[in-house]
Every structure is written in C-alpha cells, then in structure tokens.
Amino acid sequence: MADLSINFCGIKAPNPFWLASAPPTDKAYNVVRAFEAGWGGVVWKTLGEDPPAVNVSSRYSAHHGKNREVLGFNNIELITDRDLELNLQEITEVKKAWPDRAIVVSLMLPCEEKAWADILPKVEATGADGIELNFGCPHGMPERGMGSAVGQVPDYVEMVTRWCKQHTKLPVIVKLTPNITDIRAPARAAHKGGADAVSLINTINSITHLDLDRMVAFPAVGNASTHGGYCGSAVKPIALNMVAEIARDPQTKGLPISGIGGIGSWRDAAEFIALGAGCVQVCTAAMLHGFRIVEEMKDGLSRWMDEKGYKSLDDFMGKAVPNVTDWKYLDMNYKVIAQISQDDCIKCGRCYVACEDTSHQSIFRTVDAAGSPTYTVNKDECVGCNLCEITCPVQGCITMVPQDTGKPYMNWTQDPRNPRREVKAA
Ligand SMILES: Cc1cc2nc3c(=O)[nH]c(=O)nc-3n(C[C@H](O)[C@H](O)[C@H](O)COP(=O)(O)O)c2cc1C
Ligand code: SF4
Ligand code: SF4
Predict the structure, then answer these.
(1) Residue 369: how many CB atoms within 10 A of its CB?
(2) Atom 3, ligand 2: which residue's CA is nearest?
(3) Is there a contact between 62 and 74 (Cβ–Cβ < 8 Å)?
(4) Which residue of 367, 397, 399 sits with most ligand 3 atoms within 8 Å of its CB, as the best mutation to test the pocket?
(5) What sequence ranges are listed for the domain 4Fe-4S ferredoxin-type (predicted)?
(6) CA nearest neighbour of 185 among 149, 142, 152
(7) Short-list 138, 184, 132, 139, CA closest to 161
(8) Which of 59, 85, 347, 405 is the most buried (most CB within 10 A)?
(9) Torsion angle of C-alpha atoms 145, 150, 151, 155, degrees rounded to 10
C-alpha cells in the first residue's frame, strides 16, 4: 500500500490533502470534523487584527453548467469574522487533540512590521505547525491595503516574508494571488524573502452573472454587488499552469509548492503533485460535497500509486515538470491524426460540423441509400487539432493516433520555415 504521508517544508501530515483557508476551516467544530473524516491538515481561516472583519449578506454566487453542476464558485467573503483570541484558543485545543495533523495558520495584517511581530508569538504559542501569509484575497481586503494588494507587488511580498522569517521560527508559506501577469515575479520575491514554501492559487477576480431584471450582479447585496474571488473546478487549469511555471523556473526551483485551485478528486491532486506540488489544498469541493470527499481522494490516489508502482509521493512529485516546455521547443515533426471508431460512433455529426465550420474540413460525411450517415477522417487533410475528439460526446470514439513521419525531432528554433531560426536543422 502506497505511503501518502508528507513532510512539506518541515510540516508533517499523514496525507497530502489539506483544507484551504476558508469557511471549512474557520472554527474548531469544522476542523475537528474534517480531521475525523481523514484530512491530513488544514490551513485555518485567515486571522487578522481585532476587531474582526464584518461580512455582508449575501456573499456567494456560482457559474452553473447546463445541469446545474457548479463549474465555478465566487465569493465576496472577508477574513475571519471571529475574535482573534477565540481562534487562537481553538487552534491550541485542536492541535493538542490532533498532534499528527498539520495545522497552518493563515494571516493577513497591514504592511507594518510591528503588526506581524506582535501576532507571530501568539500564533507560535498555539503549537501550530506553520503560517501561511494571505497575499491573495482579491476583494474587500485589498481596498484596505492587504491581500492581493500586497501579492501584486513583489517588493511587498519579499518585505513581509522577511519580517515573518525574522519574527517566527515556524515555516512560512506565502499564498499567492493569481491576479497578476506573471506568477513567477511574486514567487521569486517570496523565495528571496526567505519563504519556506508558496501556495497557490487564491481566488481570481470575477463576476459570475447578473440579474438582468434588477441590473445587478450576483451575489447581490441589496441593489449592488462587487467583484468576488473565483474558484472551484473552472480555475484548475489556471492553477496548474501557475504551479508549473513556478516549478520549472530556475530561480524558484526546489521551492516547495502547495497546490490549490479546483481540486476535487484524487486525479486532480495527482496532477498538481506531478507538476511539482508537495501537498494540495481544497476549498470549493469540500464546501459543495462535504468533508467525506477526502475518503475517495485518499483511496483513489493510493490505488493509482500502487498500480504505477509509486511507493511514496516523492516517486512521482514533479515528474511531469520537465515535460512542460516553451512552445518553441515543441517538435514540429510530430503528427497525430483523428481516427473514428465506427463501432462506437452514434452518428450525431458534431465532429463533422466542428471540423467543417471551424477547423480543416477534414471529416467526410457520406450517406447510404437508407439515409444513414458515416463519418470518416480525411487523413491527408487532418492537422490533428483535437477539436473533433473534444466535441465528440462518446468518450474514446475518436482517438488521436500518432503518425510515423520518419522525420527527426525539430523545434521552431531549428525550423527552416522560421525566418529567425537560431540553429540549423540536423
Ligand atoms: C468562501 C471562501 C472564503 C475564502 N476565504 C479565504 C481566506 O480567508 N483566506 C485565504 O487565504 N483564502 C480564502 N479562500 C480561498 C481558498 O482558500 C482557495 O485558495 C480557493 O478557494 C481556491 O481553491 P478551490 O478551487 O479548492 O476552492 C476562500 C475561498 C472561498 C470560496
Ligand atoms: S483533428 Fe481537427 S482537423 Fe483533424 S478531423 Fe478532427 S477537427 Fe478536423
Ligand atoms: S462526434 Fe463522435 S459520435 Fe458524433 S458523429 Fe462524430 S465520431 Fe460519431
């Protein structure tokens, strides 16, 4: 049986599944139930200075799919709205009762060294395993000079990280905002400031939808709204890319990463880990489906690892990173073409419409005497774009088949068609 235990920048946990700082971790009642369900760790809902934040009603909205499945989730909630002392006391109690689980305390304070120097010893006294600096909240707090207002300025990220390293012995995880052009800049700044790890992503600026009668966006607070933070399944691709960017950046190579964003299954987690994450954090999936999703996550991950012969997470951590490269290094001579399984095809014609209207007109449609259509790929014209495979409603009906071109690897920097090529093709 695979060993799921981790040592993430010095923080030990029985498995890599942590709950992210958010409502699931905002009080002892929740955290204890999460630990009972099997979560390996939590990042406690962000603490700040007293008086605690005050929240509005309503505060969440969602981007639904056609069958009302939640594709993306949006919130305008602030940091904890409970007293600092109460949170600290509960953290102390829970850590004492659950010594084998990771408890990381998320913090958000003004950019003043004294504020950080004052709170850090109090957090340390709880017995918590580490701190996470919330430089990511995109709503409300930035208007007060905190959250993503800090995360968007690498100099501030570095400065506050350095203060924290000076004023605590606990591992410092810097949580990054995705609301920035190049995620490597704040990650490098955190690294320079001495961070033990980074975590990402926090939520993305968003407006999910509008009430067109009232002309107000959701979540509505009376007759007005404000942009919120987007998360859930829809943000996973953005998060995966940002994690990979940091993992393959020579300046941050080796910096531990806690992957967050749209994780709802063992497979999502495995993907983050393969792209360099040392643990993962979950919020929306737990909010929508409850704490027990962790059972399937642990089970699935450990079964898949057994199947692959991976004994510990280290065996595949970062294994996909070398395979993420710049476009210019992709093989110009690699070629796939679509192949349709006539046995599986339900003759819906979606692939034909997609290819005919918006791709390379590479699917033949022939109709027999009885009026029944058959769809086949024109191998000479197909460019292997994947569009038909993506459109097809029958999984596995269209496969993309690699072709033997007989040509060696040649990237764009070597391609004779590139007027600015750097090296001659071999
Ligand atoms: C309602 C809500 C409240 C959140 N509050 C916090 C917070 O206090 N501190 C923080 O660092 N992140 C907060 N987050 C962001 C999550 O920790 C996480 O980074 C984000 O939701 C992406 O993960 P997910 O796609 O699994 O939800 C919040 C998210 C939601 C949905
Ligand atoms: S892979 Fe692209 S070009 Fe080829 S048949 Fe499908 S849609 Fe057309
Ligand atoms: S989309 Fe798939 S099922 Fe529909 S016609 Fe094309 S191959 Fe057949």
Answers:
(1) 5
(2) 382
(3) yes
(4) 397
(5) 336-365, 373-403
(6) 152
(7) 132
(8) 59
(9) 160
Helices 236-247 and 266-274, packing angle to 10 deg: 30
- Distances in Å between the alpha carbon of 47 and those of 51, 91, 296, 389? 11, 11, 30, 47
CATH topology of domain 6-323: TIM Barrel (3.20.20)
CA of 190 to the centre of ligand 1 (A): 20
- Is residue 387 within 8 Å of 363, Cβ to Cβ? no
Q: Assess contact for 322 and 377: CB atoms under 8 A.
A: no
Query: How many CB atoms neighbour CB 405 within 10 A?
Result: 10
Q: Do residues 263 and 292 touch, judged by C-beta distance below 8 A? A: no
Q: Is the CB of 25 under 6 A from ligand 1?
A: no
Give pTM, 2 decimals: 0.96
Domain 328-402, what architecture? 2-Layer Sandwich (3.30)
Sign of CA dihedral 261, 265, 268, 273: positive
User: Angle of helix 113-124 relative to helix 154-167, nearest 10 degrees?
Assistant: 40
Q: Which two tokens stand for residue 330?
A: 């992709």
Cβ within 8 Å of residue 331, ≥6 positions away: 409, 410, 411
User: Which pLDDT tens digit goes with each residue over 277-295?
Assistant: 999 999 999 999 999 999 9
pLDDT tens digit sequence for 103-153: 999 999 999 999 999 999 999 999 999 999 999 777 777 777 777 888 899
Burial class of 343 by CB neighbour count within 10 A (0 to 12, 13 to 18, 19+): exposed
Rounded distance between C-alpha atoms, residue 356 and residue 64, angstroms: 29
Of 387, 381, 327, 401, residue with least CA distance to 352: 387
Q: Give the residue, by CA position, lying nearest to ligand 3 atom 8.
A: 345
Distance between Cα 393 and ligand 1 center (Å): 33
Residue 122 belongs to what H/E stretch?
helix 113-124
Structure tokens at 203: 């939520």
Q: Are 258 and 280 in contact (CB under 8 A)?
A: yes
